[in-house]
Amino acid sequence: MNKLDQATSELLQHEIDHCDGILSVDIAHGDDGVIYRSVYEANKVHFDSQVDYFIVPTIEAATA
Questions:
Q1: ∠ CA 52-10-14 to the nearest 5 degrees?
Q2: Within 13 A of 43's CA, how many CA atoms are on the CB side?
Q3: pLDDT digits over 3-36, tens only?
Q4: Three-state SS for 39?
Q5: What are the distances in angstroms from CA 22 to CA 14, 15, 62?
Q6: Which of 44, 51, 45 is nearest to 6 (CA)?
Q7: How many domains does the chain have?
């Protein structure tokens, strides 16, 4: 049996959820489970301290 790394397995589950009609806002916990990106960017250290791993981007984000 092959095992996926955590980031890949979470991405796969995320996409399966989409196929089942489930969005991240449907499974967010509490009133502050979803935040604006501007709030995240302004408090990045705080929010990053709440997770135990980071996904390293493999491509650069497009700039608007």
A1: 135
A2: 9
A3: 988 888 888 999 999 999 999 888 888 888 889 9
A4: helix
A5: 9, 9, 27
A6: 51
A7: 1
